[in-house]
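Handout, page 2. Input:
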Amino acid sequence: MQIFIREGTLQDLPFLSQMSLEAANWHLSEIRPSLQKGLSQPGIANLIEGWGREGDISVIAESLIGEQVGAAWYRYWNNNHHSSGYVSDVIPELKIAVCLDWRRRGVGSILLSTLKQKACEQGVKYISLSVEKDNPARNLYLQNGFRPVRQVGNVWTMVTQVADRFL
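Output:
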C-alpha cells in the first residue's frame, strides 16, 4: 500500500461529504444511500456543514495516482449544536472514514496518527469520537488510546489524550 497524507483544504469539502456518509454507513451488509439522500439525514449533514470555521482540521489520504482514499477530521461543537461524540466545548470530535476498497490496509491508522499529531501541534489535549460497539474500527480506537466515557444504546463515546503523546 502506497499512500500519502496531506492537509485538507476547502476544496476537499465534496470528499469530506462523501466520507461523512461512508463513516455513518460502515456496515458492509447494508445498502448505501445515494450521497444526496445520505447527506439529507440530520446526523450526517451536520458533520461538515459550515466547514472551514475556526478549529476545523482535516487530513486526506491519497493513492500515488491522486485518488482520494480516506479522510480524518475534527471540529469543535457546543452543547446546543453537536454530533454524537460530543463531550465538551473544549474537546474536538474526530470523524474518520476510508473508502471501501482501501479498508483494512492501514489507511485508518495513518490518518488517525496524522490527525492526532496535528491536534498536538494545535495545542489540543483530548479528542473524542463516537463508534458503534460492533464497528471493527472500535479496535483501532482502543489500540490508539481511546477509552469509553459513555454508552448510549450500541454507541460508545470515546476520548483519548493526545497532547503528551507527541511532545
